[in-house]
Amino acid sequence: VLIAIGRDACTRNIGLQTIGVEINEKNGKVPVNDEEQTNVPYVYAIGDILDGKLELTPVAIQAGRLLAQRLYGGSSRKCDYINVPTTVFTPLEYGSCGYPEEKAIDEYGKQNLEVYHTLFWPLEWTVPGRDNNTCYAKIICNKQDNNRVIGLHILGPNAGEVTQGFAAAIKCGLTKELLDETIGIHPTCAEVFTTMDITKSSGQDITQKGC
């Protein structure tokens, strides 16, 4: 049984219409600009209520802190809603940071991207004899910006821990060259990102025969 529980934006009966704040009539969420400002200049919104933004508590906390610092502390820092590490805690975890491949294509154009990917087999799976080529890793690079990594995805054990570490590197401008120059810790799942050499466009086989 799969239960997917979403969140409703309860904005229709709190008086927003009285002061003229616009909402998305389809989902009740509030459109804002890149500074969390609504169409009414003195009204701001943060968190899960934002239209088109991530419904994650740490994102809301970060956005709230940065908003307070801009309004009262003289800061100009804005919340980064793209490079957010995220994990789905299913039995085989999925983690991501940055752009999904489809959105990256929309944003940068397919011709400007290089996608590296591979299947992999965690060493810890060899003793119990679990299926090979179940885990997957992928990075999306912007060829027009020194092959900067704009998307990272992993399906495998401890994906959340792996993604959290690489998220900091992505925020620092991680490139494919820097990944290639990084020495991997063997045997870990994360080391797969330091050895990727097969591009999606090549059509080469990405199946693995061992850890």
TrEMBL record:
Pfam families: Pyr_redox_2 (PF07992), Pyr_redox_dim (PF02852)
Domain FAD/NAD(P)-binding stretches: 1-64
Cofactor: FAD
Keywords assigned by UniProt, alphabetized: Disulfide bond, FAD, Flavoprotein, NADP, Oxidoreductase, Redox-active center
GO MF terms held by the record: flavin adenine dinucleotide binding; glutathione-disulfide reductase (NADPH) activity
Record's keyword annotation contains Chloroplast: no
One GO term describing the cellular component: cytosol
GO biological process: cell redox homeostasis; cellular response to oxidative stress; glutathione metabolic process
InterPro entries given in the database record: FAD/NAD-bd_sf (IPR036188), FAD/NAD-binding_dom (IPR023753), FAD/NAD-linked_Rdtase_dimer_sf (IPR016156), GSHR/TRXR-like (IPR046952), Pyr_nucl-diS_OxRdtase_dimer (IPR004099)
Keyword DNA damage annotated: no
Residue ranges of every copy of the Pyridine nucleotide-disulphide oxidoreductase dimerisation domain listed in the record: 84-196
Alphabetized PANTHER family for the sequence: GLUTATHIONE REDUCTASE, THIOREDOXIN-DISULFIDE REDUCTASE
Homology family: Belongs to the class-I pyridine nucleotide-disulfide oxidoreductase family.
The protein, known as: TRXR3 reductase
Organism: Anthoscopus minutus (Southern penduline-tit)
